[in-house]
Amino acid sequence: MKRNWQEVKTKFSQCLCPPGNGVFTVNTAQERKAALHQTLFGQTDNIQALWLDSLDTLPQSTHKAVMLGISSDCGGGILRGANWGPLFLRSTLMEQQPNSVSFDLGDIRVIPHLLHDKYLNDATIENCQKALYQSTDAAYPVSPLSITEDICDDFYDQFPEKGIFGIGGDHSISYPLTKAYLKAKRERGIRTAIIHFDAHTDLLVERLGIDLCFGSWCTHILEYLPAPQYLIQFGIRSSGKPKAHWESTFGIKQHWANEIRERGAAAIVAQVITQLKADKVDELYVSFDIDALDASFASATGTPEYDGMTPDEALLILAELAKEFPITGADMMEIAPFTDSSLQGKVSSDNTLREGAKISAFLIDAMNK
């Protein structure tokens, strides 16, 4: 049964926190958080109250793109630090892409040691409910993936014509974001496809016994798609198995980075558009792992890879897709601003944020249309 808006707002007020506050700290990055709050709210005091007041305006908001930060990197496993992505990417968007505007829902409240509630025993869940909500009566979930799915289910129930633009965080977060999106679209009879940019397939069944993580999330959303070929991947290049293995095993479609270089992005996307039209796709969700880009453009990430896509190739593909299909959901994942394995330091982190902001701005604008 559909909840009324006040019930949903109450849940949002408990399970979310103001934008940029998703990483729980006492002193770390306080100046950056304050700068973001000053830009968003015009002041740095009473942010909790101002943010709660802003939630009241969501039903009247004309923006179709609604931003949600998920500051969790517990589902990663190489270099950590993507939990700072939501704070830093928001700031970069405001500084460098000021014309791309969305409604900011805030951040998921994250206990950084947790991933999904199904991995926890009852006693741990009860303790974490007390820590997050000061009560066990509401019985809200406590882990980032579980909270995200719960929030997104209610969001799409309330606002079927709006879409979530998720900022991560590691790529495990795309599991609840896409699952909620696909369920909601399927209930309305809308045929959707997932467009996935990544250096890696993310098609493991499990990684070291964990089935929901950055390397396996794609496998577990296939059941919510109309058919497996509605998952289309761009930029793959770091894989222990060849393309034929992934396509034959899972039935998905892949366009590896070397193919895009050799054949050209325009030819590849034309082929994809033909496929999508043949499959009668109505809408698209774009999940963008920043490591789809070559490490010379985006090295501030947990698993940077060379021989990847250029930002221009990615934007050309997105622009051509957006001409033919509505993009109604999207995410930007794996930007880790404090982590740079290239040893180029701050300069490269700035480059990664700049390219991530360009692509994010395109996706937000496409969603608002």
From TrEMBL:
Keywords: Hydrolase, Metal-binding. The keyword Hydrolase applies. One of its GO terms (biological process) is putrescine biosynthetic process from arginine, via agmatine. One of its GO terms (molecular function) is agmatinase activity. InterPro entries: Ureohydrolase, Ureohydrolase_dom_sf. Belongs to the arginase family. This is Putative manganese binding agmatinase (SpeB). It comes from Pseudoalteromonas tunicata D2.
